[in-house]
Every structure is written in C-alpha cells, then in structure tokens.
Amino acid sequence: MARKAPRRTAERILEASLGLFNRFGESHVSTAAIAAELGISSGNLYYHYRAKDEIVNALFAQYEQALGALLQAAGDVADVEDAWFFMHRLFELVWQYRFLYRDLNHLLARNRQLEAQFPPLLRAKTQAMHTLLAALHNGGALRLPPGGAPETTANCMVLVATYWLSFEYVHDPRRALEPEGAQSALLGGVRHVLGLLLPYLEPAQGAHLARLVQAYGADGTDGTDGAAKE
Fold first, then answer.
1. What totals of helices (H) and strands (E) does the chain contain, helices first?
2. Whole-number Å distance between alpha carbons of 112 and 125
3. What letter would DSSP give residue 227?
4. Distance of CA 73 to CAs 69, 89, 211, Å?
C-alpha cells in the first residue's frame, strides 16, 4: 500500500493557524505562536508567509472558494427541508472559518485586502438568498408579497448569517465558540435565519419547519437526550 505523501509545510501552517485563530481570535495569535504550535522556526514560517496577514488572506481565499461552490446550490432548494440543510451547510462553513466573523470589524479595519474582498462576498451571499427565495416561491413553498419584501428578507437573512456567531459570542464569550458549542450555534443560526420566512411560508411548510426545529432541538441538540452533538 502506497504511503501518503507528507503535507507541505505551507498547508500545515494554514491548518494550525486556522485552529489557533478560531480558538483564541486572530488578534491574539502571533506568528511565533503558530511556529511553536507546529514545532518549526519562525524563519521557516516566514519563508512561506512573510506576515500574518498573508496567512489570513490565504485562509479567506479557501473560505471564499468553498462558499462560492456552496452558494451555487441555492437554486436547487425546493422546500423548507432543502432550505434547512442548505443553511446548515452554510453555517458549518462559517463555523469552520469562524475567526473571520468573530473578529470581522477588526480584520476589515486593518487588512486592506479583506476590506476589498468581503463586500463582494456579502453581495454573493445576498444574491444566493434571492435565488433561494425565488426557488421556494416557484416551488410553492412560500409566497412573498409584491414590492420590496424579497430584497428586505434576503438582506435580513444575510445579516443574521453574518453576525449570528458574534451574537452567540457576546452571550457567552468563554464557551460559545468552543468546539462543544458548535451544534448549538449552528442550529440556532439556521433556525433564526429560516424563522424570517415564517410569515410567508405556506401552512404545511411552516408546520414542517416547526417539526425540523423540534427534531433537531431548539437549543442545538438532536431532540432525543438533550446532549449536544459534536
């Protein structure tokens, strides 16, 4: 059996940095701490990434690529259950790169590349929400009134999705963004984003959304024994 090739140092740096940024916040992690985590010299790290912002930008590029692929599926949403799992996948991705959202204002204030790249990402999310709403409308799952309702609803969905983890963090700074809080945070976000659709859902679809919330647990559990899933 062929042995797997060892991962390149640059890939290991990104993986270690992502874990540290998510755990402690990007602003609290130095390049020296990243090097120490990997057991390499600072010089070795700087050979691959000349500054911490280069690591942040590389991680953002990974996130942007994965998000772009996911958003393409927005048009395939036909009903509330499809929307539930689409939004769950979205929040899983946000959670994977949660340091971006935990420290978003700080990062944008001092990283010019992110300052330029994040607004188009938000526009792509908003367009995907428009596409999702249109797909649900065309499939008969919801009826949005004429006028500005689709635009307002899409913007509110993106707003909640963007700042949900910050909301969770403020409520419980020491534990909210730790791994054991993942399912509670993800499912809470999904529930609140899709809750914006309740006034417009067809009755059967609204009832199905309520069943999904009950099945997965309003507090992020699976609705069986109250234990949060990892």
1. 11, 0
2. 21
3. P
4. 8, 11, 24
Residues with pLDDT less than 70, the chain: 1-7, 217-230
Q: Look at the chain and count its residues.
A: 230
The answer to whether the beta carbons of residues 170 and 105 sit under 8 Å apart is no
C-beta contacts of 144-151 below 8 A and 24+ residues apart: 144/200, 145/200, 149/200
Whose tokens are 């390499």? That residue is 40
Q: Give this prediction's pTM.
A: 0.88
Whole-number pLDDT of residue 70: 97
Give the number of other CB atoms < 10 A from CB of residue 71. 20
The residues with which 191 forms a beta bridge, in sequence order, are: none
Cα(116)–Cα(121) distance, integer angstroms: 10
The DSSP line for 22-58 is HHH-GGG--HHHHHHHHT--HHHHHHH-SSHHHHHHH
- pLDDT (tens digit, 9 = 90+) per residue, 61-98? 999 999 999 999 999 999 999 999 999 999 999 999 99
Q: How high does pLDDT run on average in the chain?
A: 89
Report pLDDT for 10: 95
178's tokens: 């730790």
- Residue by residue, DSSP assigns 46-91 as HHH-SSHHHHHHHHHHHHHHHHHHHHGGGGG--SHHHHHHHHHHHH
Which residues are within 8 A (CB) of 162 and not within 5 positions of it... i.e. 6 or more apart?
101, 104, 122, 125
CA pair distance 117, 56, nearest whole angstrom: 12
